[in-house]
Amino acid sequence: MTMYLGEIEWTREVMFMMCAGVGGVVLVIQTLLLFVGFGGVDDFDGITDGELDGTDGAFGFLSVRAVAAFLTFFGLAGWGTTSGGWSLAGSLGAAFGSGFIAMAFVAYVLSLQSRLYSEGNINPENAVGKTGRVYLRVPPGGIGKGKITVSIQGRSEEFEVQSTAETQAELPSGSQARVVRMLSPGVFEVEAP
Question: What pTM value is reported for the model?
Fold first, then answer.
């Protein structure tokens, strides 16, 4: 099947080459933008997580990268199979299969990349119930304050603490203490474990 549009003879090979070229150019441009500081998970990448009712399932398939990968591999597989003498049905099957696999792979990699994002903010309330090490001694009976180091959210954090009113003995530096409750932001009540 041959169509003429202007000076170009539009054969199957030319159509597949055009798809591969357009997709490849988009991928190269995005790669270059990535090197100069653009092209993160949210930059120039179609629908992002949370824009469609908080789901990230199939919407990675709609990203610019995934569609460009589909076009590139669709075109390359179609061009190769057509040049190899395959039938139209065989060429289209191989092209769609290759394009879909490339698109699914890129969508999967983007979903993994989006999971790497982290706010980095510590929520002090996560310290309640944890056991930590006393950094500065804690006076007994809830009179006076000390400091404790607790591991929360994968980080070691230092908080100001006071003992419970029932605590009869001082919690010396280096001893263990369990965080009972938060008295105010960054200030906790502790007891011996």
Answer: 0.52
